[in-house]
Design goal:
The chain is built from 13 helices and 13 strands. Helix 3 packs across helix 7. The protein is of the alpha/beta class. The strands form 3 sheets. The protein has a 7-stranded mixed sheet, with helices on both faces. It has a 3-stranded antiparallel sheet with strand order 7-6-11, with no helix packed on it. A 3-stranded antiparallel sheet has the order 10-12-13. The radius of gyration is 21 Å and the shape is globular. It is about 35% helix and about 15% strand. The relative contact order is 0.17. The protein folds into 2 domains: about 240 residues, 3-Layer(aba) Sandwich (Aspartate Aminotransferase, domain 2); about 120 residues, Aspartate Aminotransferase, domain 1, CATH 3.90.1150. The two termini are about 30 Å apart. The longest helix is centred in the last third of the chain and has 19 residues.
């Protein structure tokens, strides 16, 4: 008998995604630059209450592009080390230097107590990361610091689409916000990303950067234009395809249901895991609305993490560590001279964090099985 598997994540989908894809395929053209792209961008803008949205083929290309659009090709940008490595890599790809700052333990966002220490005349921007379906608890204070020091605030909201604090959405506080639609995110296009902004100039630059620096007449794309086209920037092929956008439209139509299911399962974990000795949950703050893209816990004894993960894996329960510190990766050690002890709070959090499975298909019995295995490990 094959044991049931408890995957780290799965994707919420129904017949609408299939119908949208079939529509694009059966059209027999414009799989790359069809009307689904502008439709998806418009619907994202409506949801986020932002004037402009540009879609990309990944969150990484979106973040790289928005840094270029802001002219952040030199100087320093403050980022957390506790993030997916693309957050820092994009800073380097744009031509700037990432400067790592400490995080706080309630939402795992940048800690304002340490942020100001990193600001100097070379600092040009701050990139806060909204972790695992939460919004940084200090985002309003970070915004004030950015304004006080005349710095750009560019949010990495890859993991927190739809999350709110004080009824404001992640990604809408700064000059621009980056979203990711990779397969494990709140909504997915398979691979994909977007930038939202109210700045018309940034929007126009993003359109150029994402498509080879090419000027396109409104409503007439490259494949429909019989005339010579002008190129006024050095850009990339960072565009999202029609096929991905079609999936995005279908996914976005279910966003309220997706968030409702995630919150139900996250809250069930919250309620039933807090009684177990051996680790701590990371509770939702009173003024926030968490979307539980990840469900992470803090282990009381970090030295046992590998043993716990292997024990759970033997029971077909998949876990992961989100995240290991970026500053301790080989490239960053060698290029910038980082070493252990440089960010003690980040390093401590990274050693004790562990992410549990969060699946749309989990029944309460499934979650109870995972909870029971954790409880047995500690008894």
């Amino acid at each position: 008998m094959v044991n049931k598997k408890y995957p780290l994540f799965d994707i919420y989908w129904d017949q609408k995604e299939i119908e949208m894809i079939k529509k694009v395929i059966k059209r027999g053209s414009y799989w790359a630059t069809g009307p689904e792209i502008s439709e998806f961008e418009a619907k994202l803008g409506q949801y986020l209450n932002k004037n402009h949205v540009v879609t990309f083929n990944s969150g990484t290309s979106a973040l790289h592009s928005v840094l270029l659009a802001h002219g952040l090709t030199s100087g320093e940008i403050i980022v957390p080390s506790f993030s997916f490595i693309a957050t820092a890599n994009c800073v380097i790809l744009a031509g700037s230097k990432p400067v790592f700052a400490e995080i706080e333990q309630k939402t795992l966002g940048l800690d304002v107590e340490f942020l100001k220490e990193k600001i100097n005349p070379k600092t040009k921007a701050i990139i806060p990361v909204h972790y695992g379906g939460k919004v940084c608890k200090d985002i309003e204070a970070i915004k004030e610091i950015a304004e006080d020091y005349n710095l750009y605030l560019i949010e990495d909201a890859a993991e927190s689409f739809g999350a709110k604090i004080n009824n404001n959405l992640a990604g809408t506080f700064g000059t621009s916000g980056m979203l990711s639609f990779c397969q494990n995110k709140i909504i997915t296009t398979g691979e994909g990303g977007a930038i939202c902004t109210d700045d018309e100039k940034i929007y126009q630059k993003l359109k150029l950067i994402s498509s080879h620096g090419r000027v396109e007449n409104k409503g007439i794309d490259y494949f429909s234009n019989i005339n010579e086209m002008e190129y006024i920037e050095v850009g990339f092929n960072y565009r999202m395809s029609s096929l991905n956008a079609a999936i995005g439209i279908a996914q976005l139509s279910k966003i309220n249901e997706i968030i409702k299911i995630r919150r139900e399962k996250g809250k069930y974990y919250d309620k039933n895991l807090e009684k177990i000795q051996g680790f701590q949950t990371i509770p939702e703050l009173n003024d926030s609305n968490t979307v539980y893209q990840l469900y992470s816990i803090f282990l009381n004894h970090p030295e046992d993490r590998t043993e716990i993960q292997n024990y759970l894996l033997n029971n077909e329960i998949y876990t992961k560590v989100y995240f290991y510190p970026i500053h301790l990766k080989s490239y960053y050690r060698e290029k910038f001279g980082y070493s252990e002890g440089d960010l003690p709070i980040t390093e401590k959090i990274s050693k004790k964090i562990m992410t549990l499975p969060m699946s749309f298909n989990f029944t309460q019995d499934d979650q109870n099985f995972i909870i029971d295995k954790l409880e047995k490990f500690y008894t």
